[in-house]
Amino acid sequence: MKDLSNKSEDKHTPPVGGDGGLHYHDYLQLDKILNSQFPESDKHGLSAHDEMLFIVIHQAYELWFKQLHHETDSILKIMSKPALNDNSPELQTVVHRLNRVVTILRVLVHQIDIMETMTPMDFLDFRDMLRPASGFQSWQFKELEAKLGLKFQHRHGKEYYTSQLRQEHIDVVKKAELDKSLLELLNNWLERMPFFNEEDNWKTFSVHTRMEHVPSFWAEYRYQYQNSLADVEKDNIDAFDEIFIKDYPINQEKSLSSIASRAALFIMLYRGYPMLQLPFQLLNALLEIDEQLSSWRYRHMNMVHRMIGTRIGTGGSSGKDYLKAAADKHYIFREIAQLNSFLIERRKLPFLPPEVEKRLGFVAA
Amino acid sequence: MKDLSNKSEDKHTPPVGGDGGLHYHDYLQLDKILNSQFPESDKHGLSAHDEMLFIVIHQAYELWFKQLHHETDSILKIMSKPALNDNSPELQTVVHRLNRVVTILRVLVHQIDIMETMTPMDFLDFRDMLRPASGFQSWQFKELEAKLGLKFQHRHGKEYYTSQLRQEHIDVVKKAELDKSLLELLNNWLERMPFFNEEDNWKTFSVHTRMEHVPSFWAEYRYQYQNSLADVEKDNIDAFDEIFIKDYPINQEKSLSSIASRAALFIMLYRGYPMLQLPFQLLNALLEIDEQLSSWRYRHMNMVHRMIGTRIGTGGSSGKDYLKAAADKHYIFREIAQLNSFLIERRKLPFLPPEVEKRLGFVAA
Amino acid sequence: MKDLSNKSEDKHTPPVGGDGGLHYHDYLQLDKILNSQFPESDKHGLSAHDEMLFIVIHQAYELWFKQLHHETDSILKIMSKPALNDNSPELQTVVHRLNRVVTILRVLVHQIDIMETMTPMDFLDFRDMLRPASGFQSWQFKELEAKLGLKFQHRHGKEYYTSQLRQEHIDVVKKAELDKSLLELLNNWLERMPFFNEEDNWKTFSVHTRMEHVPSFWAEYRYQYQNSLADVEKDNIDAFDEIFIKDYPINQEKSLSSIASRAALFIMLYRGYPMLQLPFQLLNALLEIDEQLSSWRYRHMNMVHRMIGTRIGTGGSSGKDYLKAAADKHYIFREIAQLNSFLIERRKLPFLPPEVEKRLGFVAA
Amino acid sequence: MKDLSNKSEDKHTPPVGGDGGLHYHDYLQLDKILNSQFPESDKHGLSAHDEMLFIVIHQAYELWFKQLHHETDSILKIMSKPALNDNSPELQTVVHRLNRVVTILRVLVHQIDIMETMTPMDFLDFRDMLRPASGFQSWQFKELEAKLGLKFQHRHGKEYYTSQLRQEHIDVVKKAELDKSLLELLNNWLERMPFFNEEDNWKTFSVHTRMEHVPSFWAEYRYQYQNSLADVEKDNIDAFDEIFIKDYPINQEKSLSSIASRAALFIMLYRGYPMLQLPFQLLNALLEIDEQLSSWRYRHMNMVHRMIGTRIGTGGSSGKDYLKAAADKHYIFREIAQLNSFLIERRKLPFLPPEVEKRLGFVAA
Fold first, then answer.
1. How far is residue A48's CA from residue A40's CA, in Å, rounded to a whole number?
2. Cβ contact A53:B19 at 8 Å
3. Residue A31, burial from CB neighbour count under 10 angstroms (0-12, 13-18, 19+)
4. Do A307 and D239 touch (CB under 8 A)?
5. How far off is chain D from B358, nearest CA to CA, in Å?
6. What is the ipTM of this complex?
7. Which of D272, D360, D362 lies nearest to residue B275, judging by beta carbons?
8. What is the pTM for the complete model shown?
9. C226-277 residue pLDDT tens
């Protein structure tokens, strides 16, 4: 393909079309996008056909990572507000954009099919020329994990990224680790759920048991949950207490406080009520994100294994082991996922008092 | 996201990492790739969140179009040789890369899911600012259609691209239209199939009928085909004669000569023989390409319809009508697809003489 | 595979496991499911390997059609209530199940990939033995189309199903055509949207224009819409009047009354408000259903074309033509899809009066 | 849905249509297929809407398992022949059907999307009623694993299936374990590859080294491989010797002999030659099968986890743990997958002598 670029083009000032209005080619900055592929094998005079694919697919991934940041940043901004207005479209916007993140991740998983059309021997044709460059150096991806809520201490191979990335990119990731993550903002948002401590709402609530310092609803729910356990599941009540009953401040290893965990479980249990529908969709989208990220790591791992076997990757380590460990450890919303262990049958759910029901619904005509 | 670019970076000379070897960030030219998104709505001070998606998805499409050109160019180069060596890996390379084209097209179809997360009202937020830029101006896509074999005269809205594209891009597409397309090279390759006119091969071939100027095999096959037709299908024999029997030179409207059509049908019929396996996979890959291109146009059309309804697109015309007409007309390998109307049951297939069988197989030990 | 059935098994009374409780094999009635494949080619002593695939894939389709009926029936039942309680989970259940229908349809589209592994010649091996059986005879699919809202008079080849199906199955489809379809129930539900004629709500609504017999909101919206039209779009205002302004009773060709169309457009425009979120998701799910059905017909059509070309199908007609006509005509929720032609930019949307806003939101604490 | 069955229907004798020829409804045995759904929750008078989905999806899986057996049986039959004729379509048929198996498995993975539309609470509505029935009891799946090559001793939870399945189904799985599996037949077929020990073929082969009892080609390849290893990879040569050099009989833990492993590696290295193209596609299809089975187990595991968390499954054990262990252990063609650790760069591949090249190609004209 010929070089069709405008020679005088400047990266940060997109040219104005001289031909009367915006042009697709300029709008999309195609001179830059399409002139950013420089195979190393060409430079070595050992042109390897498949290196172009290797470059283009990684560039496509990075483009989409940029878009994922664009969506995530906008979500973080809304979630950072001291109070989300339930009667505004804000929450819907959050859910819509999280679902878009899921849709993008699905395509990124599918894109691995394309990489798999490169055979191990085609890769060997240029692998050695890329050293020590490596996909581990995708700072955008690490920054994204951090924004979503992956803590440095939970990261597999944490020394690794500090040794592999440039200082400017380490700084970017570090900054994201210091800022409030989506997981932290989620915790705060969940903690703001009212109802449970508003004594007046629960006067008519029928209970089998009470617990000191525990809101009526949760003492009762604990009772119902305990009764629903099969013999071999009896120990689950300890996990229940650990997660929902024990006092703030939260366990160092936990990201969600017991108050936030309660709110999340309540959303799952009573999502049929209008006011809990979007919150439920939000929790669900987070689980989908984890699932797609996990699928991506998993298929990526299999692909790397198929490509290099037990040989070492361009970055100098066994790609597969890193990816496997990351796939097992990097579940960001794990604590949300685990709440499903604490559901009970719908027909045993406590009936909510009318005062609470009213708060969960629309204004009557 | 901060601008992380090296200020001194020059587009055509990728920097050598000062930190001891190739770096992922430089190798992929991420400074350019990730700094090529300039929403028009930002410039107008009416920032529209979804315009970033609009830019990124089109850039991702164009990146992949570049890759499709890379694969197609390499295929054209091999197919342009006066004779493909059946005992070399060349044909396998062609098939492998055509299948890669199919895999990429599948992802491009899937990618429409992402665009569909943009609602019509989100699009209205910046649609008017893009005029007259439009996806019709993707010269890479038009160039690709031309390389595969779409003729200017078969193109829907042909005046259209000459009026919409810049002269330099029109020239690119025109050049591709003048060069030998994949479809033309396919015709030439098919015409080189030997066997039918080598009289010695067919001495022992058992026939029910003969036709002047028609090789024995084809006279016999025509007889078997005619007998296989149900009453309501009887007219198919005229189509058969039109395609396989009538003399060279070919119909102006046809891309495959009768000789090439015969070779393609023979490949379909006897693909069980070793020598015809790759040729069959080649034909099949071409049909898959058409099918994916068609799915892409079809889903694209539905998406545009869902986005703008009967409103006009940014390019000034009804996007849906163009896409529908293109989806119906732009089948490039239609004549290959139509050959399946002329198959007969496997148990009625003529037995090939041993001389021909031998030519289709491996060297005995 | 050996016949593992219990000889005494009776179809309508699933056996109770003699081995202490429910068994997977009995629960799923696998004796019946796995012993329902009888290839015709076996009976003719001309065993064709691929006929088993042909049987199994059609059985899988019919199983899923049964599930689609199960979901659709439950949706129709809820939508038939004289009033859906906005504060109950009913609407959420409808949306959830419609989305499940979409998910199932996606898999059914994907399943065509499996059918495409059957080559035309493999199909010819048993095609003639199936006559006149044909996929047109899937009464479950026709019944489903009818339940969703496809009218007999809009059906392509309507005489066709009456001639092909058995009387008992025709009766099933006819009954579905007579019952209230999802489209009709949707119209009724939309017509029940309050607000527009409740004069008190609109006292503070600021307008540029008024129209007799037309609620203030819609006169104003018409004004804004007309102003948003580009010159070449000016005629759209006639379509607007046809759809939203003209009086009840509705056009014979239309399924949605002007009152219902207004409600649907209002939902699209103001879906950010809590009360309109589920209604918006409902409309969206219906469009997805149409899109998946359309994709299914389209891929099915291409597959049939690839399989039989211009030969006739087992049912005695050209499968492709029927499927193409059906794909073009059988959009059931077309009138919902067309509403996007009548949107305007978000920043030009009329501000709703506080009285209306309040009705669209949650009870304040 | 009404019961539309013919009352007199007998399971093993499909009825002949009284209305003049085969009918779709009878051909597909829809009376049986569509009347095999009996929700337990209905019997308990606690009708749970989603149990129908649970039944139908498992029946769809079992239908497809039957088809997978149909394909696998036909493949085993061909592979069992003492010698596959390279000049016959047999090998192509094997590859074609293995690829069909892959296509089916892909749809089965996708089908999990449908199951995921069932929420944990919807499942709780009927979970307890199914005990102790469980998906572990799918004898068809276990039989399939055995036919492909999963040995009883490699099976995770091996005591488990003997305790869960009925004796008649255990017998079915046991028989499959005793018969020659696809993996064993693959080993035998690979061992029959000629060339290496035919001294005359290698007279002109240029070598850097020789090894006693090792064919020239493999001594030379070992030399090239050793030289290609980076420092940290040096130990790979021990694995190389273990797999390719050590004598027959094979390691008890290995499924492929060193002779078979060599043949498989040779196919991968020289797949460009016509005669090795189908063998390469065969190996590739086996890896795809493992990958899809692995994806299926992995997504299944995630789905189960999302559904029941740490609660126990209907079969009385933690579904997730079993599935995770199975996903990690049940790679059937692992030894093929690992061969990619022993590839070298294409430009360092030994040149084959003309005598060998000739054997790998077609008869010259």
1. 9
2. no
3. buried
4. no
5. 7
6. 0.90
7. D362
8. 0.91
9. 998 888 888 889 999 999 998 655 556 789 999 999 999 999 999 888 888 8
